[in-house]
Design brief:
Layout lengths: L33 H17 L14 E2 L9 E9 L6 E7 L2 E4 L3 H17 L5 E5 L5 H14 L4 E3 L2 E2 L3
Parallel strand pairs: 1-7, 2-5, 5-6
Antiparallel strand pairs: 2-3, 3-4
Helix pairs in contact: 2-3
Length: 166
């Protein structure tokens, strides 16, 4: 070790080692921002993957048009589609409720829909049931849904429509 009072050195130093100069640091400037950019991108990717991406079923429901727009816009939503069947004159009806699909012509699946409606009502009894039925859905199907909602305990059932274009 060399003492500080030696004219050849500044401060304490050891022979054979290079003197550390802070201005030669590699991490100054743009390089030190790279880990923070990586961190921000990872957090953004993590949040994107955990975010709920689909709030309603990924189907296009053609709601009937009306001139009135009263009623609630939120609640337990059930979407009903009427699809043509190849080789037959009648149509199949699909029900989408709580991320589940139910086929209308299968009695076991309709019983499952009844159970799902009762469970949803038990969890949040103050919310209404909102039926989003396609224009081609039969009136009989809508009446059956009203009966199922009544059996499940719902006191308020609304039909979703879209405002008429003026």
């Amino acid at each position: 070790m060399i003492r500080r009072d030696d004219p050849k050195t500044i401060g304490w130093a050891v022979r054979g080692f290079r003197h550390y100069r802070p201005e030669n640091r590699l991490g100054s400037g743009l390089v030190s921002a790279a880990p923070w950019v990586n961190f921000a991108l990872l957090v953004a990717l993590y949040l994107y993957l955990l975010a709920p991406n689909v709030l309603q079923p990924g189907v296009a429901v053609q709601l009937p048009q009306t001139s009135f727009t009263d009623g609630r816009h939120y609640g337990h939503n059930i979407a009903v589609l009427s699809l043509p069947v190849a080789g037959r004159a009648d149509r199949d009806e699909l029900f989408f409720f709580d991320d589940q699909r139910y086929l209308g012509r299968e009695p076991s699946e309709m019983d499952g829909l009844r159970v799902s409606l009762a469970t949803a009502f038990a969890q949040k009894p103050n919310l209404p049931l909102v039926i989003e039925a396609d224009r081609m859905v039969r009136h009989e199907t809508i009446v059956k849904l009203f009966e199922m909602a009544s059996e499940a305990g719902f006191h308020e059932v609304n039909l979703a429509t879209r405002p008429s274009e003026r």
